[in-house]
Amino acid sequence: MTTVQIELPDELAQKAEQAGLLSPAVLGELIREKLRAQSLQELLRAAESIADNNDLPYMSPEEVAEEITAMRAERRAAVKS
């Protein structure tokens, strides 16, 4: 367990304490929620970036299967070496 010390303006600290937001359980959940939100935003930015990149060639399911087969063959060959 890690101890974290934070500095807040007095008024904010008082309001947070009155609202029950300063308990370890609540603070932990608030941080977890924020981390999930950030992860989601990163995923959405990555998806948007991919969608914006029109230079990516379309691959048929057969081409994808061929690429996967080739990658697996390369991995097997590397393991045997």
Topology:
Blueprint: H1 10-18, H2 24-52, H3 61-80
Description:
The longest helix is centred in the middle third of the chain and has 29 residues, at 24-52. The model has no long low-confidence stretch (mean pLDDT 92). The protein has one domain (10-80). The protein contains three helices and no strands. It is elongated and about 60 Å long. The two termini are 44 Å apart. It is mainly alpha-helical and 81 residues long. The protein has helices spanning 10-18, 24-52, 61-80.
- Secondary-structure element order, N to C: HHH
Class of secondary structure makeup: mainly alpha
Give the termini distance in whole angstroms.
44 Å
Low-confidence parts, pLDDT < 50 over ≥5 residues? none
Q: Would you report the number of β strands?
A: 0
Largest sheet: none
**Form type:** elongated
Strand content: under 5%
> Average pLDDT across residues?
92
> Helical residue percent?
over 70%
Radius of gyration: 24 Å
Enumerate how many helices there are, as a single number. 3
How many domains comprise the coordinates? 1
List keywords for this structure.
81 residues, 3 helices, mainly alpha
Question: In a few lines, what is going on in this structure?
Answer:
This protein is an all-alpha fold. The chain has helices at 10-18, 24-52, 61-80. The mean pLDDT is 92.
